[in-house]
Specification:
The structure is a single chain. This protein is mainly β. It is built from one helix and twelve strands, in the order ββββββββββββα. The protein has one helix at about 135-140; strands at about 10, 15, 20-25, 30-35, 45-55, 60, 70, 75-80, 85-95, 100-110, 120-125, 125-130. The strands form two sheets. Strands 3, 5, 6, 8, 10, 11 and 12 form a seven-stranded mixed sheet that branches. The protein has a five-stranded antiparallel sheet with strand order 2-1-4-9-7, with no helix packed on it. β1 and β2 form a beta hairpin. It is elongated and about 50 Å long. The relative contact order is 0.28.
C-alpha cells in the first residue's frame, strides 16, 4: 500500500507534512485519504483510523480531544480488500469546535486477527490543521 502528499486532502486541499492546512472552527472539515495498492497482489482486510491530537511542542501529545474535535461519522474506515494497482478512497469529516493547532495521526491496522502483523503497520506523517476562529479569519 502506498500514499503520498497528493493522496491526503483536508478541506479539499492536498496535505504535505510541511504545510499547515487551515479551516474554520465550528464548520465541518472534509478529510479524504486515497490508498493505492502498489503490491503485486490483493491486500486486506484492514482498517484506517484517524486520531486527532495536539502537540505541546515538548514531546507531549494530547490525544484526549473529545471536547475539542469530533468525527462526523466514524474515525475508523474498514476496508475489505484493495486489488493490485487499484485505489481505495476513505472520506469523512471532522468538526473542530475551538480554534487552535491540531494534528491528524493516520494509521493503518490489520483487521484480521489470524495474521501476525504488528497492530499498526503503516502510518502517514501527521497532518497539521489550523482551525481558525471565524471572526478572526474574516478580518484577514
Amino acid at each position: 500500500m502506498g500514499t503520498d502528499s497528493e493522496d491526503v486532502f483536508v478541506a479539499g486541499k492536498p496535505c504535505d507534512c510541511d504545510v499547515v492546512v487551515e479551516c474554520r472552527a465550528g464548520d465541518p472539515t472534509s478529510l479524504e485519504v486515497k490508498l493505492t495498492n502498489q503490491s503485486k497482489g490483493t491486500v486486506g482486510p484492514f482498517a484506517l483510523t484517524v486520531i486527532p491530537y495536539q502537540d505541546y511542542q515538548n514531546g507531549v501529545h494530547n490525544n484526549d480531544l473529545g471536547n475539542a474535535v469530533t468525527s462526523i461519522g466514524s474515525n475508523t474506515f474498514y476496508i475489505d480488500a484493495v486489488k493490485s494497482t487499484e485505489d481505495c478512497v476513505c472520506s469523512g469529516a471532522l468538526l473542530f469546535l475551538y480554534a487552535g493547532d491540531y494534528y491528524l495521526n493516520i494509521k493503518f491496522h490489520d483487521d484480521n486477527s489470524n495474521r501476525e502483523l504488528p497492530l499498526s503497520w503503516f502510518c502517514l506523517p501527521s497532518v497539521h490543521v489550523r482551525a481558525m476562529d471565524p471572526i478572526q479569519q474574516a478580518k484577514f
